[in-house]
Amino acid sequence: MAIPLQRLRAFAQHACVLAVLALATTTGAHAQPQASPTNTIGDFSVSVEPGAVATSRESSVFAYVAVTSLDRFSRPAVLRASGLPAGVTATFSPASIVPPPSGVARSKLTLAIAAGVPVGSYPITVTGTYDKLVRSTTANLTVTADSAFKLTVPGTQHITYIGGSSQVPITVTGYDFGGAVTLGVTGLPAGVTASFGLNPVSPGAKAAVNSTLTLKASAQVQQGKYPITITGASGAITRGVPLDLYVNPAPDFTLWTIGRSRALVAVTQQAGISGWLEINARPLSGWNQPIAFSMEGLPPGVTASFSPEVVNPYGPTSIAFTASADAPVGSYEATVVATAASATHRLPVQLTVLPYLDANRLANDLTRVGISLRAGESLLFNIMKPEGAAPDFYLNTQFGPGTGAGTLYVREGAPPTDTEYHCRTSGVWSTFCRVDRDPHADFPLTYFLRLKARTDMTGASVMATYGGSYDARPRVVFSNPTDYLINDNAVVESPLGVLRLNGNGGIARVVYRLSHPHRTDLKLELIAPDGQAYLLRDHSNGPINPSVEQTLDLTDKVANGVWKLRVTDDVPGGSGTLLDWSLDFYRRD
Fold it and tell me: Is the peptide bond before 118 cis (omega within 30 degrees of 0)?
């Protein structure tokens, strides 16, 4: 019996359904479930606040772009704007922002509209991009016809110094306008006040009126960047011009002594240049003015000379002191005065004038013998270091007590006491008291030796000897006092230009000062103008502020050119500062 065609079709469809169900059952029994991909960085969204802004031509308007973290996203989203009409430019500050996990970060979007932009509304697309994640939103810009009035100020940034005042010129331009405009400022930080030279102003039709905004910052205002808005209002019409106000410390400088914790100077009558002091004018907050030096309060008969007399804009200067024969003996307080166009600073100096002790002047390498002292008595000697410099100048002093016991004290520039001295020695003749010369004392300098008897002494002897390789020819010093940041795990180079020297470098010395929490992180090299590197320090634990003086033989190198101090921090953890360094050439030609 024949089966109808419709029943055959129904039977076939039923069979197919059963086969599919069977296949699904079999597959479900043996296949492993596939894990969905996990987004390990999260996601973010972009919005503009407010979503619609309006302004007239030849002006600017701003809004804020908010990047919101989703699923703990915290990566840099790069912002850009598209769909801008011709004559409209967009800037983001900053152009890349990182939201905190599950938080929001904002960037300031400024739209500047040129004079020829057609009136109308423009949809602008703001996009944030990180890797393959691209998120965007739309904001609306409305450009209105020139009407009423417009405010303009020069630039988009302004600086006011803490404790000072500054002025911002403001121009109010009218367009078929006859009302008065009241000026104001919003967003000022605490401690900054504003006043206007002319307020309100009446620009009239197609005219411009100028006013001046004066900003005064108190001494207590906090340094920082503050977005402010200069406003103009006339009835229901308001206009605003954004301005980034920077409140900064005023550029300044400070004085400090080099090589000595206190400004102490001793000069001897008739001894020529016998006292010295070196000070440094250190810049603060972008100082860029020349500084002139002078002295106040010197006693009669004492003179001081500066080398150099002016530093531009900052740096070290040496002061050499001389006392005439009639300079009154005693202690005085004088003042180093550093004067510039916008600041003056003073550094007190304790000055002692000593009598000329010719009878007790020691000759180099000659022994004074037959000295007798009672217990508690003292005898003062002095020896003059000649003018000039040497790579290894030193002063060795020693004494023989004869019968009895005593102590020999030695001090540079002033008589020593029981507590103020550079070195001392007690005991047998073979014991030395050594004073290494200060590297900046190129001119004559007096050293004082004080022999004090602890018991009665007879037949004592004293001798002073300075270095046998002493070179009285002048030394040439070059230095770079500029701070250079030593970033963690990075390399920095401080350049030093050497000029007006003849021939090769000869014997030279390098001294530097660093500030760093982990001195063993650092490797230092002196780089010659031809690129050759001289290793000064290789991750050692020695002193860095100041460093140990290092003498180099540069007789095969041309002196003139750009030398560099290279600092390598190649150990993670900790950053510091290269404070200054100097390169001294002891001339042999």
Answer: no
29 pLDDT higher than 50: no
**Cβ atoms of 381 and 462 closer than 8 Å:** yes
Please, are residues 446 and 362 in contact by the beta-carbon 8 Å criterion?
A: no
- Average pLDDT over all residues of the chain: 83
Torsion-angle region of residue 519: left (phi > 0), alpha (psi -120 to 50) or beta? Answer: alpha
Q: How far is CA 53 from CA 140, 141, 155, 156, 318, in A?
A: 6, 5, 21, 19, 62
23: phi then psi, degrees, rounded to nearest 5: -65, -40
Q: Which of 473, 491, 490, 492 is nearest to 482 (CA)?
A: 492
Which backbone phi and psi does 18 adopt, to 5 degrees? -60, -40
CA 145/CA 56 separation, integer angstroms: 6
Exposure letters 197-218 (e unless 16+ CB within 10 A, then b): eebbbbbeeeeebebebebebe
- The more confident residue out of 284 and 586 is 284
Q: What is the pLDDT of residue 470?
A: 43
Which residues, in sequence order, are CB contacts of 339 under 8 Å at separation 6+?
291, 292, 293, 294
Q: Which residue has the tokens 């492993």?
A: 32
| Pick from 397, 362, 369, 368: nearest CA to 458 | 369
Q: 6-10, 130-134, 168-172, 409-413 — which is least confidently predicted?
A: 6-10
Please, what's the largest Cα pairwise distance for the chain?
156
pLDDT, one tens digit per residue, over 97-136 is 999 999 999 999 999 888 788 989 999 999 999 999 999 9
Of 268, 499, 472, 492, the C-alpha closest to 389 is 472
Phi and psi torsions of 189, nearest 5°: -75, 160
